[in-house]
Amino acid sequence: MKKLAYLFLMLCFAAAPAIAADFVAGKDYEVIDQQETDSGGKVEVLEFFWYGCPHCNHFEPFVQKWRNTLSDNVAFKRVPAVFRPSWKVQARAYYALQAMGKLEELHPKIFDAIHKERKRLDSMNKMADFVASQGIDRDAFIKQYQSFSIDAKVRKANKLVKNYKITGVPTVAVNGKYKVDGRMAGSYDRMIKIMDYLIAKESR
Q1: Apex CA 123: angle with CA 133 and CA 48, to 5°?
Q2: What is the pTM of this model?
Q3: Does CATH place domain 27-203 in 2.60.40.1080?
C-alpha cells in the first residue's frame, strides 16, 4: 500500500512540470514591461473589459466562478476600457455604481441587459433609466456619474489601458508583468488556467 502511494506521489510530481510547460511565454501569455501595481503587496489581477463586448459577456461567468477560488494574496480588479468616446458612458456607470456600493449587484445585470435584452445603454439617461428600473435612485446615480471623482477614475482607467498597451478585450494582466487574452489562450477555460498559473508563479 505504501509503495502504491509512493508511486502515485511520484507520478503527480512528474506531471506537474509538464502541465506548467504547457503555458509558454510569447505563445500562451505575453511578458510585458513591468507596470506599477497598487494592491498592497498582493498579486494584482486586472481584467480589462467593455460591457458591450460579446467576448467579455461570454467570459464573465468564468470570471465570476473563478473569483470564488481566489486566495487572500490575490487582488482582483476590473478596468473598463474606453476605445471609443461612446464607451465612456459605461465606464462612468461602472465607477458610479462602484461608488454607490451597487456594482456587484448590477454588474452581471448590465451584461444581461445589453446582450440578452438588447438594450442600448449608450447614454447617461438610458443608463440612469436602467439602474432606476433595478431599484436604484436615479438622481443619486446621475450625481455620482457626473462627479469629479468619477472623472478621475476614468482617467486612471484610460492610463492603465495605455500603459498596458491593451488593444482588445477581454484582456487580463497579472501583477504588472503578464498579459493573456482569449486569442492567446484559445478558450476561456484555458485562459483561467493560465491566469492561475501566472498567479502561482508570482506567489512563490
Answers
A1: 95
A2: 0.88
A3: no
Q: How far apart (Å, rounded) are the C-alpha atoms in residues 46 and 65?
A: 16
Residues with Cβ < 8 Å from 79, sequence gap 6 or more?
46, 47, 48, 49, 157, 160, 161
Dmax (CA) for the chain in angstroms is 70
Helices (H), 47-123: 54-67, 88-99, 103-115
Domain boundaries, the chain: 27-203
Q: What angle do CA 29, 47, 111 make, to 5 degrees?
A: 125
Report residue 137 as a C-alpha cell.
435612485
Q: Encode pLDDT of 90-145 as tens digits.
A: 999 999 999 999 999 999 999 999 999 999 999 999 999 999 999 999 999 999 99
